[in-house]
Every structure is written in C-alpha cells, then in structure tokens.
Amino acid sequence: MTERQDRPALLSVLGDGLLLICALMGFTGSFFSLYGDVSRAGPFLLLSGVFALLALGAWSLPRFRWVAAGGAAAVLAAVAALRWDELAQGAALTVRGISAIFAQRVSWGRVFEFEPTLPPRQARAAAQLFLLLALALLALALGWAVVRARRWWLAALFTLPPLLPGLLADLYPHWPFFMALCACWCAMLLTDLCKWAAPDRRGALTLTALGCAAAMLAIVTIAFPREDYARPPWALEAEERLHDAANRCAGLFSQWEGPFRSPVTYVGSAEEADLTNAGPLRYTGRTVLRVSSDYEGRLYLRGSSLAVYEGGVWTGLPEGVYQDYLDRLEEEPPFPLTLPTLLGEPGAEHTATIENLGAVGSCAYAPYFPLEQDWREGGMLPVEDAYLARLQGQTKFTVAFAAVEPPEEVGPTVRYQNLVYANYLDVPEELEEALALLASPIYDPWSSIGGGHWRPDRPLARVMTAQHLAQLLAERCEYDPQAPAAPSGTDPVLYFLNDSRRGYCMHYASAATLALRTLGIPARYVSGFTADCAPGAQIDVPDRAAHAWVEIWLDGFGWYPVEVTPAAAFQWYESGEAQPSAVPSREPGESAVPEPTPTPAAEPSQAPSSAPSGEEDGPGEDSGPSSSIVPLVKVSALTAGLCALLWLGQFALKRHRARRLDGPDRNRAALYAYGCLLRLERWGGKIDPLALELAQKARFSRHVLSREELARLRALIDAERARLCQTLGPVKGSAFRWLWGAPAPAKYGENTERSQENTP
Question: What whole-number percentage of the chain has pLDDT above 70?
Fold first, then answer.
C-alpha cells in the first residue's frame, strides 16, 4: 500500500500540476495587479509556470523527493547569500511599496521607511530579484502543500497573506488570476473532504473537483458582474457595523506597545487625507510624540501639506510639478518652509527636540519657521515643498526655529511663487457656489467682518481675511468630534457647509482652504500635532493632539499657518479629558471665535535653566538602569508568553487526541486511530497490517470493536511515536515531539512486544 501511494498515477500528477499552476500563476497575477502593473507581470507569470512544474517534479518523486526539494532550497539559499545586500534592499523596497499603497487607502496605515543606497535602475533590479527568489521559494512550499500534505488551508496560508494588505485596502486584483487562485483553494477543499477516497482515484477526483470549482466561479462571475454589481442594503449595513466594531477594537489594539517600542497608532500625517471616511473621532490617549523645547507656548508641529482636493480626498502636488520647477533653476533653491526666516526678520531663535514614539507616516514633525541647517545630519530630508521626511531608523530630531511675523508690505518676489499660484488656487466646480456664499460677507463693505477692507495683495490683509473666514465658519458650523461621515456620493465639504453643519478640524481646514482659494489666496491643507511647551519641560503629546489647519501664501514672506478650527477643539488641553469635547452651549447670538494665528512668540517669558543641546539625553528624559531594564523585561515577558502558548498548544493537542481515542463509539475511535497512523506515516512511520485489518473491520462491518482491539491500535500508535522520537533528526524530531509527544521509554518496549504478539 505504501509503494502505491509513493508512486502517483498519471492522472494524479496531472491534477496536482494543474492545482500548482492555478495557485502559483493566480497568486502572481493577483499580486502584480494589486501592487503594480499586471501588464508587466508577463515574465514572472512565465517563470511561475516553470517553477510550478519543477516543484511538481521534485515532490512527485517516489524516492529522494526531500533530497530534490532540499537541493532546490540550497540553490536558492546560495543565490541569496551571494546577492544578500541587493536582496535586502529589494525586500525593503517591496515592503515599502506595499505599505505605501496600504497607507494611501487606509487612514491608520503606516508607511515602511526605507531609503535605498542603490541607483534607481539597480534598485528596481534588486526588487525584481527579490520577487523572483520569493516566487521560487513559494513554489517549493506550495508543491509540498499540494502534492504531499494535500491541505487546502496550507495553500491558502502560503498565498493569501501577501494579498491581504491590498484586499483590506479595498483594492481589487485582476479577476481571472484571482479566480484561478480561488479555484485551487476550492478544489483542494473538496478533495480534502473526501479523505477516504481510494488513492489510485485521487487524480480523477482532483480533476473533477477543479472543473466543478472553475465552473462554479465562472457562473458566479457571470451572474454578478463586478462592473454592474450594486451591493444590497444589508451588505452596506453589515459593512457599517464592521467599521463600528473595528473602531471599538482600535483602542484595545493601540494600547499594545510590543517588546521593541513599536506601538500601534492610528493618527499622523499621510500622503492623502480622505474626508469621505471622516466619521466620529476616537482616541486612546497614548503618547505619540515627546517634545522638549526652550520655547514657551503652543507649538504647531507640522507634518505634511496637501495641495489637490478631488472627490473628498486631499492629495499632494501632481507628480513632476516640483521637479519641473527645480529643472528651470540654475542653482538649488532654499527649502520653501524656510523662506519666512530668509525673507522676513527672524526674532528670537529656539530649538525643539521631537521624538516620534508612534505617530504614523514618514514625517519629521517639526515647528514652524525652521532655520536653514544640515538636514541630513539631523536625520531629516526635505521632500519637495511638502514636508520634512525622517531618514530610515531616525525617531529623534532637534530643529532650530525662529519667531517670524509677516510684514506689512509685500517683499521681494521669489521664483517659487509662480509654482504656488499655478497649483494652490484650484477649486472643484461643484463647490464654487457654496464657497462663494460662505465668503461673501468679506466683500460686503457693510459687514462687521469684512468691513470693506478687502486687500488681498498685502500679507497682513491676507492674514486678517483668513481669520475673518475662520469666524464665519465658527458662526455657520458647530464643532463636534462625533460628527458622522458624509453620505456616499456626497462631497464632504459641501455636506459640512450646507447639511450637517457639524465637524472637526479636517472639515474646518478643508472648507477654509477651498474658500480662501476662491478669494484668490493660495492655500493648502496641513496636518500634524499641537503641543503646549514650557522651557525645560518634557511634554508627552497624546494621539488626541492630532490636528489639521491651513497654510496661506504671503507674497515676499512664504507659507504662514492659520488656525480655522473653533477654540472648543482645544478644551481637552485644559480639562485633561481623553476625548475632545463638543462646543459648549452658548447664548443666542454669541459666536465661538477661533484662536489667533498660531505663531511662535517673540520671546519666552522665562529663560530656561538649561537649553536642550540636541544630544540623546534631552531635558527631562529618563536615563539610568531602569530605561535599559524595560526592554529586557518586555522581551522576557514575550518569551514567557510564547513558551506558554507552545505548552498550551501541545496540551490542547494531547487532550483532543485522548478524547477522540477514548470516545464512546469504539469504531469511530478506531478509525481516528488509523488516521493517526496515516499521519505518522508522513513522518516516516510504518502501518502494521493489524491496524489496517482493524480499521477495515470498523469501517465496513457491523461488528463493534472490543476494548482490547481498540487498545491494540493505541499500542501501535504509542510504539510508532516512541520509535520516531528516537530515529528522527534533532529539528524534525523536536517538531514531532511537540505535535505528538514522547511516550515513556519503559512503555516503548512494552508496546512493541504487545504489537508483535498481536501481529497475525
């Protein structure tokens, strides 16, 4: 019987080969369609078919299959060792690309930070080499799962996790490839359910199951085409309930910090801001930034700025716009965020040390009006005109900044100004009417807000206009952190201004940015954090300090921040509550006036006792033995937890096996015992003819096995377990002992003698 199982029939090889090709080529096409361009996946698809055939040949050998598979793995390991540096960078680039796509689609995603040292062309080649070796390794693993283990969940385990980030981000793979992968899973599930089928008919069963699965998926695809499919109301309601449940669980998961200080957080600046999913705010109160500064007052820690608003989503400048601006210049221009300190009159200089403990995104959150400095030396890198990026592995920065006030008159013109007026004045047509109505009092000479002093050409007039617009928003809309998301198909800004009139910083900043653009003032949406600093003090910034505001362009000065959210948004600073509070009740006619423009004060009220120097030990930072013991304690706790899980897993397996073998139905227990012997055969065990005779008796006869006959089967299992524990190698033997346990040595001889006596 063993020889027949080891020599697969032609139909079995054909069925296994089709399963492998469907799995590997379906995975390859789905992966490239989710994270790249499926039109460029042709060479990888061809190689995936070749790898599938090679894996099929290796695992279908009647003998020495482990030698063939091990030899292929050794070749892959040798190639990896020879090209390790390129593979490491290729792997990091692949993870960075997937995480960037995920973060763009999901508000709580985090981009993996990595800057390759290779030139762009070599970096792309390194990523392709990594994908090629990963595909070959996946072919070996899938070959074992399909040909030898024949477990559908193993095939799903090897192919589904790399696709999950894209699927969770609501991306759709190329449909034929994904259907091929699903057909493999379904066919293996159907054949796994028929585990008592004759081995020599396995090929016909596999081909039949694969054909049925393909036909079923084709019918579903034709009946429910993706282009015309509209989800029913119950599906939309279920999705909303899942979102609510996920939000309720977010607080629990974000409390876990892990052993290496890698906390899970859900706030910070990203490459886009999606207002269509801006529902009720939920925070955990965990610390995301740690700030030390000699400045006294509220600091706006700037993350990234966004330029284009379309379909309820803010994104950055179109690709290539800023590079075209640089190409037209003869020399490297200054970083746009430092223009105020170069064109204006800087006041007192300060420093701030910011440590990122868990805020998402690749931004180096920094105060306004930074001075020109060696960015790379400080672990930062200016990115276009949008933000400061953190270099890989950098979590702590020291930034020098100054207090700068906007001038009364227009200063000298800079070349960057042309880019600003060309890209930061666009407004969607469907919003122009509502935004013009919002800003109309500013034009009215009889209005108490505009007062007829509309002079958009002067810097201070633009600042006053932005403050007046913030007052109009505060009178029109109510600050509410529990404001619901806009209905599907409705623009969030339009819904905020005309329908709900409830929102928080994202809504106020978006509406103000677009309204200022209708007035001819270049503006952009900015996100980051706020922190109330005191000289010599270390401030822990919680996730509830995440905020959004507006930057306006002042000719001859640069970008200037304006707060447009009502003051009620900052009441949690005074109250210390974990959630932002709603706008307090006010008398009729009373308006909530926004806070003044957030700019650094000219001079702190008191000089600090010791200004931070930018070294690792900043003021108020814990140092000493306790800080080094904490990671050790976390690692020890994690190790103890893993050991406990391993022990509990082994205990659960033993209890499950003992319960099945001691069940009241002795025939069913005998069949389970024979199944255990079949699983032991995969480890190198042998099936005694007595076990086969008793299993056939329990399966096909009406006779109920006696307790003695069932005990013989148990003795055979114990004998094989003991023999395998002594004959298997150290690695494989350790895995076997964890799964099956090791009988006592004394029991081994007893069981062996008993099995020999009962052998006919």
Answer: 76
Helix, strand or coil, per DSSP, at residue 65: helix
Cα-flanking dihedrals φ and ψ of residue 387, to 5°? -165, 175
Give the integer Cα–Cα distance in Å for 508 and 562: 11
> Can you read off the two tokens belonging to residue 631?
């990671």
- Locate 298 and state its tokens: 């509220």
Question: What is the pLDDT, as a whole number, of residue 111?
Answer: 66
Strand ranges for 2-93 from DSSP E: none
Residue with tokens 């080499």: 129
DSSP state of 584: P
CB atoms within 10 A of CB 54: 17
Sign of the CA dihedral running 196, 199, 205, 210: positive
**623 — pLDDT class (breaks 50, 70, 90):** very low
User: Apex CA 251: angle with CA 249 and CA 255, to 5°?
Assistant: 120
The pLDDT confidence band at residue 629, using thresholds 50, 70 and 90, is very low
Query: Using CA atoms, how far apart are residues 405 and 289, in angstroms rounded to an integer?
Result: 27
Separation CA 476–CA 499 (nearest Å): 11
Global model pTM greater than 0.85: no
Write b or e for each residue in 197-217: b if 16 or more Cβ atoms lie within 10 A of its Cβ, otherwise e: eeeeebbbbbbebbeebbeeb
Position of tokens 């919003």? Answer: 431
Structure tokens at 499: 């329908």
Burial of 470 (0-12, 13-18, 19+ CB in 10 A): buried
Q: How far apart are CA 337 and CA 302, in angstroms?
A: 10
Report which secondary-structure segment, H or E, holds 394. none
Measured between alpha carbons, how far is 54 from 73 in angstroms, rounded to an integer?
Answer: 12
Q: Which helix (H) or strand (E) holds 401?
A: strand 396-402
Provide the pLDDT for residue 244. Answer: 57
Angle at 705 between CA 701 and CA 710, to 5 degrees: 135
Q: Exposed, middle or buried by CB within 10 Å (0-12, 13-18, 19+), for 492?
A: buried
Above 90 in pLDDT, residue 522? yes
DSSP annotation of 276 reads G
CB 548 within 8 A of CB 270: no
Q: Residue 549: CB partners within 8 Å, gap ≥ 6?
A: 300, 505, 509, 526, 561, 562, 563, 564, 565, 598
Collapsing DSSP to helix, strand or coil, 178 comes out as: helix
Of residues 702 and 186, the one with the higher pLDDT is 186
Residue 622 has pLDDT above 70, yes or no: no
3-state DSSP call for residue 198?
coil
Question: Could you tell me where the beta strands, DSSP code E, fall in 555-631?
Answer: 558-562
- Distance CA(613)–CA(31), nearest Å, equals 48
